């Protein structure tokens, strides 16, 4: 994919009349045009916060690159520590325990994290944990009269659904904008290790990362994450991490302080039309097993090279990235039921999830 993908945040414009062609069309509910989303906004915005991150980064003194300077001044190439400050957004998802979801890249190298609520209260946050593979981080602030955004079900989203994006673009303060779901299940962008993005026509700007993507019922369906920005400009293609994925990550961060990614020990690839013809399968989507690692859970469960995985626990698998997500975010020790086509016949294979370890990372598969 051409262009540059930038991890920033979301902002969208709502069309308010028939001539406002550049914005999102006016949503219609029950046959009646929705001319205001003020009631939804009033309920949700208290649960969206601004995040200020203070960090220290090491930089090489530019004078160290000058050989004459190094020679005459006996200069030693020592890094310079510089303190920086960055802004982002977050979403309160548990008011009783003070849990705030945001992006992992928002709190990268954080020395101090401050969270500011809509009513201008400021808290020092504790980092519970972060997962770079999904770009999700979990913070905790004192549970003092907080308001949480209700968690929705991103699996129920459809292309064309209207959504609201709430965040803190450019540090301006809380901003609410709108758009629609442009696509679902976007993968292969190279932004994260586990990709299953909601694509939206929301205009994403720096500072919106970690903010809320909500539906018109005010339920949280995504965490705003990135844009496609060829030449550095915004072209209205933005991405959010589905809340179902973010919730799975959050639960592991609460339990372990980290995400223990699962594996079964297979190298997989998408089913292409050429491969489908070669296999003689009637399926057009799925994850094709290219190789089974010796001694792996996959081998013990009976998977073979050439098997086409079409479902996990009864849920359809469309591509290799989707299988990777399902396995990688499954609970370690759980047994999954894989529906496999082999030789034109479907069968069920039971495979136990084991934890991916650093030593096994070079094996590119799940």
Please, could you describe this protein's structure?
With 366 residues, the protein is mainly beta. It folds into three domains: 5-44 and 148-256, Trypsin-like serine proteases (Thrombin, subunit H); 46-57 and 80-140, Trypsin-like serine proteases (Thrombin, subunit H, Beta Barrel), CATH 2.40.10; 262-360, PDZ domain (Pdz3 Domain, Roll), CATH 2.30.42. The protein has six helices and 24 strands. The protein has helices spanning 38-44, 67-73, 243-256, 273-279, 297-301, 320-328; strands at 5-6, 28-29, 32-33, 48-60, 79-94, 99-102, 110-116, 122-124, 126-131, 136-140, 162-167, 175-186, 197-200, 212-215, 220-228, 238-242, 262-263, 266-270, 287-292, 308-312, 315-316, 335-342, 345-352, 354-355. The protein has a seven-stranded antiparallel sheet, covered by helices on one side. It has a six-stranded antiparallel barrel with strand order 11-12-13-16-15-14. Strands 18, 19, 20, 21, 22 and 23 form a six-stranded antiparallel sheet that branches. Strand 5 (79-94) and strand 6 form a beta hairpin. The radius of gyration is 23 Å and the shape is globular. The two termini are 24 Å apart. The model is unreliable at 9-22 and 359-366 (pLDDT under 50).
- Rounded mean pLDDT is 82
Secondary structure tally, helices: 6
Poorly predicted runs of 5 or more residues = 9-22, 359-366
Kindly estimate the percentage of residues that lie in beta strands according to DSSP. Answer: 35-45%
Order of helices and strands: EEEHEHEEEEEEEEEEEEHEEHEHEEHEEE
The SS-based structural class is mainly beta
Report the radius of gyration as a whole number of Å.
23 Å
Q: How would a crystallographer describe the biggest sheet?
A: 7 strands, antiparallel
Strand order in space, largest sheet: 8-7-4-5-6-10-9
CATH topology of the largest domain: Thrombin, subunit H
Q: What is the domain total for the residues?
A: 3
- End-to-end C-alpha gap: 24 Å
Overall helicity: 10-25%
Apparent shape? globular
The total count of strands amounts to: 24
By CATH, the architecture of the largest domain is named Beta Barrel
Q: Assign the CATH class of the largest domain.
A: Mainly Beta
The fourth-level CATH homologous superfamily of the largest domain is Trypsin-like serine proteases
């Amino acid at each position: 994919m051409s262009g540059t993908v930038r991890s920033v945040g979301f902002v969208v414009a709502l069309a308010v009349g028939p001539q406002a062609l550049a914005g999102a069309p006016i949503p219609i509910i029950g046959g009646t045009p929705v001319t205001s989303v003020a009631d939804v906004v009033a309920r949700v915005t208290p649960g969206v916060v601004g995040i200020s991150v203070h960090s220290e980064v090491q930089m090489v003194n530019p004078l160290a690159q000058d050989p004459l300077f190094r020679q005459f001044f006996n200069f030693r190439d020592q890094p310079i520590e510089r303190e920086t400050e960055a802004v982002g957004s977050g979403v309160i998802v548990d008011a009783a325990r003070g849990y705030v979801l945001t992006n992992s890249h928002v709190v990268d190298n954080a020395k101090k994290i401050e969270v500011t609520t809509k009513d201008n209260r400021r808290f020092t946050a504790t980092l519970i944990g972060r997962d770079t593979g999904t770009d999700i981080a979990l913070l905790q602030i004192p549970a003092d009269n907080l308001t949480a955004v209700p968690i929705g079900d991103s699996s129920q989203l459809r292309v064309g659904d209207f959504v609201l994006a709430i965040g803190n673009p450019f540090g301006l303060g809380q901003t609410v904008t709108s758009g629609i779901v442009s696509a679902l299940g976007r993968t292969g962008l190279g932004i994260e290790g586990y990709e299953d993005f909601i694509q939206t026509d929301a205009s994403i700007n720096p500072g919106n990362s970690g903010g809320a993507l909500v539906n018109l019922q005010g339920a949280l369906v995504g965490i705003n994450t990135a844009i496609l920005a060829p030449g550095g400009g915004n072209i209205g293609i933005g991405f959010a991490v589905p809340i179902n994925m973010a919730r799975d990550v959050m639960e592991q961060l609460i339990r372990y302080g980290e995400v223990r990614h699962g594996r079964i020990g297979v190298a997989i690839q998408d089913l292409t039309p050429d491969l489908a013809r070669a296999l003689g399968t009637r399926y057009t989507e799925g994850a094709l097993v290219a190789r089974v690692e010796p001694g792996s859970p996959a081998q013990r469960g009976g998977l073979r090279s050439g098997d086409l995985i079409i479902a996990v626990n009864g849920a359809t698998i469309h591509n290799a990235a989707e299988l990777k997500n399902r396995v990688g975010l499954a609970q370690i020790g759980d047994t999954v039921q894989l529906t496999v086509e082999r030789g034109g016949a479907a069968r069920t294979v039971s495979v136990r999830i084991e934890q991916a370890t650093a030593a096994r990372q070079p094996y590119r598969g799940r």
